[in-house]
Amino acid sequence: MLNLTGKNALVTGIANNRSIAWGIAQQLHQAGANLGVTYLPDEKGRFEKKVAELVEPLQPSLFVPCNVQDDAQIQATFDTVKEKWGKLDILIHCLAFANKEDLSGNFSSTSRQGFAQALEISTYSLIQMAGAAKPLMTEGGSIVTLTYLGGVKVIPNYNLMGIAKSGLEMSVRYLASEMGQQNIRVNGISAGPIRTLASSAVGGILDMIHHVEEVAPLRRTVTQLEVGNAAAFLCSDLSSGITGQILYVDAGYEIMGM
Ligand code: NAD
To answer: Whose CA is closest to atom 21 on ligand 1?
Structure first.
């Protein structure tokens, strides 16, 4: 049975009730995990309030600000985990960012600044957080990140985020290779398109969702909770032999040639 009782799970990337991370947090909680939640702080504290209200029913025992562009905030997050929990079992990396203007039009127009920022937030943050989590995963652990088909195949308008996801997927493999001896497993979930704050920045996302609904074997796209179930599996002992993999949770769309 899928049981995460006694496991400490740090979940990043909850912005609102549409966030994939929210679906994951709910399923980890249902499986019995002790949750910690990070949020992206903003000047007026609006995100903090909104996310705090949303996650309150899941009774997280940690709630910390973490902008992954700030080394000090990442350090403080994992210092808090060490101080309050002693050990970490699960890290959910479920965040990404790219400028809206870089998510439509010609890929060759991608700006240097936009490219650097997108890869720093969406790709490098996994490497940095995994490195910070490693010494705390003293009893082994599971790290799960979120990726998209646009990192493997060309998806209209996904542009530089495709490069970020490609790097993210390769990072999963390098991290899995390094951390396996410590029984830390690192996997990615490639989710089908879901309407969220982040995906709404991608030009033509609704067309993509409709296309998936017509073509995918299950004739629909997926829900946050379905992604959450797959994440709970990857975080549990049921997946103890799986590491370095990208698991498609996309209603089967990836197998199609059209
Ligand atoms: P979302 O907007 O709900 O989540 C994105 C999160 O990234 C937000 O919580 C935001 O606060 C966080 N974030 C952005 N910049 C940050 C920073 N500097 N520091 C810390 N956090 C930061 O959207 P989502 O669709 O749930 O995205 C979650 C993950 O799922 C992303 O990696 C995304 O690429 C991936 N994904 C999404 C889809 C989709 O169709 N929605 C499909 C496949 C993969």
So the answer is: 40
